From TrEMBL:
Lineage top rank: taxon: Bacteria
UniProtKB keywords: Magnesium, Metal-binding, Transferase
Pfam families with a match to the protein in the record: polyprenyl_synt
Species annotation: Cellulomonas shaoxiangyii
Name of the protein in question: Polyprenyl synthetase family protein
Cofactors that this protein relies on: Mg(2+)
MF annotations from Gene Ontology: metal ion binding; prenyltransferase activity
Phylogenetic placement of the source organism: Bacteria, Bacillati, Actinomycetota, Actinomycetes, Micrococcales
GO biological processes: isoprenoid biosynthetic process
Gene3D superfamilies according to UniProt: Farnesyl Diphosphate Synthase
Family matches, as InterPro entries: Isoprenoid_synthase_dom_sf, Polyprenyl_synt, Polyprenyl_synt_CS
Length: 335
């Protein structure tokens, strides 16, 4: 099976190698979610079969190119990060009441919340089984990443403490909930390819930074694109009260002494009952027309530039160029 890469690469040989290894990852993913239990089998396959960009395993395979990329451990590690990501999606969709994921009905819409949550747990178990074969250090890293994923979701759910700045709180949530797994994806690739400690540190820092940029770009896309791009209903986060950077910036703007009537009107729409589609569409449109979207986009771009700068210690060549392209592609989605 040939797997198309989500990231266009200028180096044909690198693209061919990554395409071949992504096919191995896809095969391992399918094998990993196969179950003799019919319900578990069907529910586990739901998001794997829905596809997706596979950005996390792609990043693992890409950073492995800085060392001995043909090691089997690299493919196993790439499957681990994607299974972990898929598991979080099952849980996130329940917590956010998201009706659509990757263009298909969310698992909880098909089987209910309990089955969706248990399926996510099952995928975590499958990821843990594979990572156990990669050694104690890999298990420790996976456990620490899982802890950060849970803390990010917990802090998002609870919200900032009274003394906390909501924007800074949100950036920490993104670092834990999104960037931690992207950083681990990059780390695993270099680590299992036998790269030096400096290279492993460099790509891990890159992944952490670009992970926050990635989610800020998603905040923009959620408001500015239709559901065919995201696979989700535009404004789903607004409807469910999930904080996003544009909404937080608008609240800060509307509460400032120099707030304009337009600021307050947009906030009123945002804080209205969004259960009706027309009300949600009006709130989305108000945010689209406000400069908080451009400010969020600028934060994403600035972080992407920072991530690229962090690649400085890596040797010049097609892998470094591809990592730069990886960073640019993540935020270009929000342009």
């Amino acid at each position: 099976m040939t797997t198309a890469l989500a990231l266009p690469l200028h180096d044909a040989e690198l693209a061919e190698r990554l395409t071949g290894r992504m096919s191995l990852v896809e095969e391992l993913l399918r094998d990993s979610v196969t179950s003799t239990d019919p319900i578990a089998d069907l529910a586990s396959r739901h998001l794997v079969n829905a596809g997706g960009k596979r950005l996390r395993p792609l990043l693992t395979l890409l950073t492995a190119e800085l060392g001995h990329a043909d090691r089997r451990e690299v493919v196993d590690a790439a499957a681990v990060v994607e299974l972990t990501h898929l598991a979080t999606l099952y849980h996130d969709d329940v917590m956010d009441s998201a009706p659509v994921r990757r263009g298909a009905p969310s698992a909880h819409e098909v089987w209910g919340n309990s089955v969706a949550i248990l399926t996510g747990d099952l995928l975590f178990a499958r990821a843990s089984s594979i990572v156990s074969g990669l050694g104690p250090e890999a298990v420790r890293i996976q456990a620490a990443t899982f802890e950060r994923l849970c803390l990010g979701q917990l802090h998002e759910t609870v919200g900032p403490r009274p003394e906390e700045d909501p924007v800074e709180h949100y950036l920490q949530v993104l670092s834990d909930k999104t960037a931690s797994l992207i950083a681990t994806s990059a780390r695993f690739g270099a680590m299992f390819a036998g790269c030096s400690a400096e290279v492993v540190r460099t790509v891990t820092t890159f992944g952490e930074t670009i992970g926050v940029a990635f989610q800020l770009a998603d905040d923009v896309i959620d408001l500015t694109s239709d559901g065919t791009v995201t696979g989700k209903t535009p404004g789903t986060d607004l409807r469910e009260g999930v904080p996003t950077m544009p909404a937080l910036l608008l609240r800060a703007r509307a509460g400032a002494p120099d707030a304009t009537d337009a600021d307050r009107a947009a906030l009123a729409l945002l804080e209205s009952d969004l259960s009706e589609d027309a009300a949600l569409a009006a709130a989305v449109q108000a945010l689209r027309e406000h400069d908080v979207v451009a400010l969020t986009r600028r934060r994403a771009v600035d972080l992407a530039h920072q991530a690229v700068a962090e690649l400085g210690p890596l040797p010049a060549g097609p892998v470094k160029e591809a990592l730069v392209a990886f960073a640019e592609a993540l935020v270009d989605r929000a342009s």
